[in-house]
Amino acid sequence: LAECQPVSPGPLHCLKVILEKEGPRSLFRGLGPNLVGVAPSRAIYFAAYSNCKEKLNGVFDPHSTQVHMISAATAGIYCTFCLRKE
Length: 86
Description:
It catalyses: UTP(in) + CTP(out) = UTP(out) + CTP(in). The chain has one domain (11-84). Helices cover 66% and strands 0% of the residues. It has helices at 11-22, 31-57, 65-82. The longest helix is centred in the middle third of the chain and has 27 residues, at 31-57. The model has no long low-confidence stretch (mean pLDDT 89).
């Protein structure tokens, strides 16, 4: 039964075919606009994470798992609501 199902090519095969047919520049096409869109949101996330971590280090055991988890959750929630398009 397994012999009847076609096998899909792996990622290395796909990479090889793209490089052969379209060239190495095609791998990075669209990277610039993507970075322009992602960079500001990541900057806001890490700023919120850092600020929250600084404040929580005074409340909990400094640099503990609690501090990192709460800071990450807070930064994620902040970015979700702050960067939401209406």
